Amino acid sequence: MNYFPEEVLEPVFDFLSSNRDRNAVSLVCKSWFRVDRWSRQRVFIGNCYAVRPERLIARFPRVRALILKGKPHFADFNLVPHDWGGFFYPWIEAMAKSYSGLEELRLKRMVVSDESLELLSRSFPNFKSLVLVSCEGFSTDGLAAIAANCRLLRELDLQENEVEDHRGQWLSCFPDSCTSLISLNFACLKGEVNLVALERLVARCPNLRSLRLNRTVPLDMLQKILLRAPQLEDLGTGSYVKDPNSEPYIKLVNTVLNCKSVRSLSGFLEVSPHCLPAIYPMCLNLTSLNLSYASGIRDTDLIKLIHHCWKLQRLWILDFIGDEGLEVVASTCKELQELRVFPSDLYGVGNAAVTEEGLVAISKGCLKLHSLLYFCQQMTNAALITVAKNCPNFTLFRLCILDPTRADHLTLQPLDEGFGAIVQSCKGLRRLSLSGLLTDQVFHYIGMYAEQLEMLSIAFAGEGDKGMLYVLNGCKNLRKLEIRDCPFGDAALLMDVGKYETMRSLWMSACEVTLGGCKVLAKKMPMLNVEIINEKDQMEENLDDSLKVEKMYLYRTLDGPRRDAPDFVWNL
Amino acid sequence: MSPLLLGVGEEGQTDITLLASSASTDSICQNGSGLKERNYMGLSDCSSVDSSAVSSLSEEKKNNLNLKATELRLGLPGSQSPERDPEIFLMSSAKLDEKPLFPLLPSNDGFCPLSQKIVVSGNKRVFSDAMDGFSEVRSSVFTEGNWLFPTAGPDSETAQSVTQGKFPVSSGINVMLPSKPTPNSGVKSISLKENSGAQPATMKEIVPPKVLQERPRAANETSHNHRSAANNNSSAPAAKAQVVGWPPVRSFRKNTLAVTSRNNDEVDGKPGPGTLFIKVSMDGAPYLRKVDLRTYTAYQELSSALEKMFSCFTIGQCGSHGVPGKEILSESKLRDLLHGSEYVLTYEDKDGDWMLVGDVPWEMFIDSCKRMRIMKSSDAIGLVLTSGKRLTVNTALETPREQELASVNRKIAFRPAIQMGNNPWQGGKTQEGNQVKSREESGHLRTGGASRGLDAHLIM
Q: What is the rounded (10 degree) CA torsion for A363, A368, A371, A374?
């Protein structure tokens, strides 16, 4: 195939949007490798320690868009020490020198300093899009630099970041010449923003499609913004609190009537339920509704709202909805594809307001459902079997029973058969989270049926090494495996060490794996980093190999042991 | 409990002593902060915090604390009248929107966390469940698994055996407990659990490497020993409650929702999650109070709470009437004042009409009440009840819970005698711009009882 000139190959390659396809293409021959190298514009790096920035730059010199992830997923739940790592600075430092054409950056679970943002804002003249998800380490000063210096900025999307909020003036740092914004999301910021600057910014960005406000932006301002930007498609409200008899509210009612483009609605961190009727006209067109932070909308208010949203494809909601409310969802939202029901009880002590009944109702009514995150009080095998039968299209199935080892409350059996039914009928399942009382049998099913599974989260399950072995031997496409509090030990860990080279990462905490086992693994597989995270004040040398490791994180890497590890992280 | 585990437990003893003592010394401040957090979290696991603080003190100290707590509450507007029936006392004090600085008292362990939960839950559903549960198993210990309390029943045994099969070390903590200074074995382990749960970092620092090394499931144990501890004493659901990182909810979400709940609690008049704050004014009182109607289940509770909130103003009034000053004024005198025909509790309903509190069943009242006003009965002349019938509490009560309450405490606050007379509200010149409906006949209204089916709407 070498007779194709590279000028021809390049546009052909451009049609390959998936990174996996591009990777495959680059392995065909040296010529294709070269073409891919120079034409690859979008790169995804699932682990910032898997490769060094210099290596990325050498391999793909013309990258315009980079997605980079840092900490392991369990960091979301406080299982990874705060200063574990995942620093963005080495990356921006290297890219600033080499990637003058960088336009888009999406970071997840990384530590991003203000210095990094400052450097970022000055280094890439065409920079357009910054998306930060679950990042930390920066303040509004860094955002001010982005606002002031990225003159072509189209997207600034801050999702669930821990941002130090110095003052609201960052928003006024957008120069008057900034009219290019398409998306602005600062819902995660805690501090007040400059409302005048906000209104002016919205007014001068005619292409603004997505705007998510934080809780300090009052309802009056929401009304003014909607007046200025009736073209918005994605709206996140700020504080939605007002007397329904007040003038701003009445104005809002009228303004909303003109906002016919809104398809996605979120926010309502603070809310007067009596003001909700104002948004009913919007609801008719909504395809996405996120009320997972709207703890003030409950019971009848919630159900009334849902009644208006019959085009929903994605619904994120708190369990205030209740089983009865989920029945309403099931009968109203026939297009629903993604449902997330979050717990209102964040520590899982009291009663979750939803049970297996709500889930069964959803599965009966929403036949297009393919993605589910469901925090519930209890579950039964029968319910899971019904769900599996009704919705065989699940690609993502995350079930969290608040008591992680609760059995089927009717039969007192483990939930093996229920989850077994899910993996058996959902052939396309890519992500699965288990909970409830589970024996090794469930892993037997997973290994046998979950052929497409890419990510598996296990907690408080299994009886011994066999469980983990079923998974490792069976799930051929597994990329990420995270395990906590399961009796899996060295035998399971070391049975097929080659498997880990096909995976991105393995996390095991509070399992039976020993230090000695990890050392053996590290020795056998030099391409893997085996990190032991031990927050106890211990000297590594003094430790017996038979000691069980508190937390182990292992991942494949081209880079060797990382150099920025804190003291409590040992690279074996 | 295997011998191995026993050995481990003993080795860990010193550390745990350290832990326990820190718990006792710090308990008060921890408790304070914990309570604060709980208030906005609206979560029930908090109950364990209180118990822990209490349990880590000696019995004597407990009694002192008990008094102290009462004193503190007396200082607050929702303060407690000592002669009040203890149950009502707990109920109502817990429900004041002013949260007591100290947790509930250990006089009735099964009960304290319950009312605490009611305070903090902020969740209508949970609240009502809890109330039902309370009325049924009030005197016994909770076994629902929501409460971090020792359950002696067979249920807990089962739960325990299940979980112990999973977590072989779960008994380790129990062995260590005796080293704690508290004699209160009932809540002991919860105390430990609480400590590790609320402050996992501290816990980790405290447990030294030695324990770690020698314990069979050291990692599991240390990072989640609160779970193990609880397994020994309570049913599984509660036991899992404070496992680090479980349920798998992002910390960002937790923090954000926490702030939201707190804000909703604090912001004036804003309906927070499961709360229904309304303003209460009192004639002659310099400021308004807010009460969360959802924390009450019956008129009795509301009226006794209001009675406490506003009693200070009647004290002032006493002075003006020549009654001796505050310091000599006994609680009973105070109540007599309130119970006298001086004040009427009225409310503005959805339609903007001013009604006498108690004229409709409680739920209906909750739905329609916009605000309340405690007016001088001389001003409320004209607000009367149709037939002049007295409501009898027992027949009017709706739920077993209310009946129980009533039988415990028949006392009804704000029992005004309403007299015929000129109605200053007539002519639409009310201060609120609303008119008071009144009935033509005169009579007495007992505001304490819910009067289902009795049409007590007052027509002007």
A: -20
Interface pTM (ipTM) of the complex? 0.89
**Dihedral angle sign, alpha carbons of residues B82, B86, B88, B93:** positive
Q: A296 contacts in B (CB within 8 Å)?
A: 260, 264, 270-273
Given a contact cutoff of 8 angstroms between Cβ atoms, the answer to whether B65 and B54 are in contact is yes
| Residues spanned by the domain of B282 | 277-315+329-382
- Is B205 inside a domain boundary? no
Contact A351 B125 (CB under 8 A): yes
3-state secondary structure of A32: helix
Q: How far apart are CA A336 and CA A365, in angstroms?
A: 9
Q: What residues 502-541 of chain A have any CB closer than 8 A to a CB of chain B?
A: 509-512, 535-538
pLDDT at A17 over 70: yes
Q: Hey, are the CB atoms on A293 and B253 less than 8 Å from each other?
A: yes
Residue B354 placed within a domain: yes
> Considering only residues 24 to 63 of chain A, which have any Cβ-Cβ distance to chain B shorter than 8 Å?
none
Residue in B117, B216, B246 closest to A459 by CB: B246
DSSP readout, A147-177? HHH-TT--EEEEES-EEE---GGGGGGS-TT
Contact predicate B31/B38, CB 8 Å:
no
Nearest residue, CB atoms, A406 vs list B205, B236, B260: B236
Q: Which of A112-126, B83-97, B258-272, B299-313 has the lowest mean pLDDT?
A: B83-97
Looking at the structure of chain B, the number of domains it has is 1
Q: Are B248 and A77 an interchain contact pair (Cβ–Cβ within 8 Å)?
A: yes
Q: Which residues of A touch B121 (CB under 8 A)?
A: 350
User: Does residue B369 lie within any of the structural domains?
Assistant: yes
- Residue numbers of B between 233 and 252 with CB closer than 8 Å to A: 236-238, 240-252
List the structure tokens of A104.
């888009």
Spatial distance between the Cα atoms of A96 and A116, rounded to a whole number of angstroms = 10
Alpha-carbon dihedral angle through residues B213, B214, B215, B218, given to the nearest 10 degrees: 0
Whether residue A377 is predicted with pLDDT greater than 60 in this model: the reply is yes
A228-238: average pLDDT: 95
> Tell me, what's the pLDDT at A524?
93
Helix orientation angle between B251-266 and B13-41, rounded to the nearest 10 degrees: 50
Distance of CA B133 to the CA centre of its chain: 15
What CATH number corresponds to the domain at position B297?
A: 3.10.20.90
For each of the domains in chain A, give its residue range(s) and CATH number, in order of start: 1-40 (1.20.1280.50)
Q: Would you call B390 an interface residue with chain A, using a CB distance cutoff of 8 Å?
A: no
pLDDT of residue B211: 37
Beta pairing class for A155-159 and A129-133:
parallel
Q: Do B166 and A298 touch (CB under 8 A)?
A: no
Number of neighbours of residue A173 by Cβ within 10 angstroms:
18
> pLDDT per residue over A157-185, tens digit each?
999 999 998 876 899 999 999 999 999 99
Residue, of A413 and B410, whose pLDDT is higher: A413
Residue B365 within a domain? yes
**Residues in CB range of B36: below 8 A, 6 or more apart:** none
Contact A509 B217 (CB under 8 A): no
Q: How far apart are CA A399 and CA A70, in angstroms?
A: 25
Cβ-defined contact of B219 to A549 (cutoff 8 Å): yes
**A137-146, A310-319, B173-182, B365-374: range with lowest mean pLDDT:** B173-182
Q: How far apart are the first and last CA of chain A?
A: 44
pTM over 0.90: no
Give the pLDDT confidence score for residue B358 in this predicted structure: 82
CB contact under 8 A, A346 and B126: no
Residue A146 distance to chain B (closest CA, Å) = 23
d(CA B250, CA B147) in angstroms, rounded, equals 24
